[in-house]
Structure formats: structure tokens, C-alpha cells
């Protein structure tokens, strides 16, 4: 059964990685609902947050394929119940309407929106929340002359995660990096390293 999954990918910040990841989705004919990239809690490591609507089998295979990319350190997939997530939304409405109808201002307060720009011709409000919340405010503002609307990509934190920094430390403790020159590797050492 299809459902919404959030994929979290930790990567080195390399040119071309976004293209390679996007190709994986397009080859499988998977529509990306939203995508966000940002620095992570670990210096030099970036985090992709990608939202898709597929079956668990498809997302599991996709995450395995993503992890095979050279610059990808780790990838996870989670359902909406396993993460804390938010999106930012901006709404542009005519200032005249806001000034004339105090009801609109009360509605905006009820939805946790705040004015970020007020001009003679328009006012821009901002709110954060889950998609259903931001969509509801679109419907509320539409009768008052909603001029423009935009929503950001999802930002998400995995509920049961210690953070990637801890995972990286655990990995380094169990898989210490071996610094060997190519000429120092004998066939016996190569076999030993593979085990």
C-alpha cells in the first residue's frame, strides 16, 4: 500500500550528487513531493530530506540504491509517525482587505500566522506547520483575495535518532579507517582487509 515516506540522506557536499539521486527517482518513475538540502549537525556533511509517496518495498530498495552512491554516508526512510516535521508557508494578501476586515486578522492569529511584510498594496504572512495546516489557511484566505502562496520543502527530524554525529562515532569505533599505500598492500593484506 502506498503511503508518504521521508527519506533522510547524509552526504558529503559534492557537485553532481543531486543529479545522480534525482536520476534514481526518475528511472523508477517516482514523483518527489518535496526536497530540501541543508548542512547537518556534522561539519562538512549535508542532509537531504526527500518526501515521496510509494510502497515500503519501493522505498526500501531505493534507499539501498542511494546508499551505494560514493558520496552518500547513510540514508534512512521513515513514515510521518516516526518523524517531527514542519513546512514554512508564505501568503500574500491585499493590505486593504486586511485593514478593512478585522476578521481576517483574527483568523491569521488563530492559525499562528505573523506578518513579515506590510506594504500599501499587499501584506505577506508567514506560518509553519504540517501541510494540512498550511493548506487550510489557503482555503481560509482565498475568499479575501489571496494573491500568492508558496510553501517550502519539508524539514524533518527522526524521533528515535541519536543524530548522525553519534552514528558516525559508532561507525568509526567499529570500522576504523586503515591508511595504507597501494604498494604496501600484498595479496594477503588485501584478503585480510576484505574480511
Word description of this protein:
The chain has 195 residues and is α+β, with helices and mostly antiparallel strands. The chain folds into two domains: 3-83 and 156-179, 2-Layer Sandwich (Alpha-Beta Plaits); 84-151, Alpha-Beta Plaits (2-Layer Sandwich), CATH 3.30.70.1150. The protein is 35% helix and 35% strand. The protein contains seven helices and nine strands. The protein has helices at 17-27, 56-67, 95-100, 102-110, 131-141, 164-174, 187-194, and strands at residues 3-12, 32-39, 45-54, 72-79, 83-94, 114-118, 122-129, 148-151, 155-158. The strands form two sheets. Strands 5, 6, 7, 8 and 9 form a five-stranded antiparallel β-sheet that branches. A four-stranded antiparallel β-sheet has the order 2-3-1-4, with helices on one face. The longest helix has 12 residues, at 56-67. Mean pLDDT is 83; it is low at 176-186.
Layout of strands and helices, then pairs:
Blueprint lengths: L2 E10 L4 H11 L4 E8 L5 E10 L1 H12 L4 E8 L3 E12 H6 L1 H9 L3 E5 L3 E8 L1 H11 L6 E4 L3 E4 L5 H11 L12 H8 L1
Antiparallel strand pairs: 1-3, 1-4, 2-3, 5-7, 5-8, 5-9, 6-7
Amino acid at each position: 500500500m502506498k503511503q508518504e515516506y521521508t527519506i533522510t540522506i547524509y552526504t558529503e557536499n559534492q557537485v553532481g550528487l543531486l543529479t545522480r539521486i534525482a536520476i534514481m527517482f526518475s528511472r523508477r518513475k517516482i514523483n518527489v513531493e518535496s526536497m530540501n538540502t541543508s548542512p547537518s549537525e556534522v561539519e562538512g556533511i549535508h542532509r537531504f530530506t526527500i518526501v515521496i509517496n510509494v510502497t515500503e518495498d519501493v522505498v526500501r530498495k531505493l534507499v539501498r540504491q542511494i546508499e551505494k552512491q560514493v558520496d552518500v554516508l547513510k540514508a534512512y526512510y521513515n513514515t510521518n509517525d516516526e518523524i517531527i516535521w514542519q513546512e514554512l508557508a508564505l501568503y500574500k494578501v491585499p493590505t486593504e482587505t486586511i485593514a478593512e476586515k478585522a476578521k481576517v486578522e483574527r483568523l491569521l492569529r488563530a492559525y499562528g500566522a505573523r506578518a513579515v511584510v506590510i506594504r500599501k498594496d499587499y501584506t505577506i504572512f508567514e506560518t509553519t506547520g504540517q501541510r494540512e495546516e498550511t493548506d487550510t489557511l489557503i482555503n481560509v484566505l482565498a475568499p479575501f483575495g489571496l494573491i500568492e502562496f508558496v510553501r517550502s520543502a519539508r524539514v524533518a527530524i527522526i524521533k528515535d535518532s541519536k543524530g548522525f554525529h553519534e552514528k558516525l562515532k559508532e561507525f568509526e569505533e567499529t570500522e576504523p579507517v586503515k591508511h595504507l599505500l597501494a604498494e604496501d598492500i600484498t595479496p594477503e593484506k588485501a584478503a585480510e582487509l576484505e574480511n
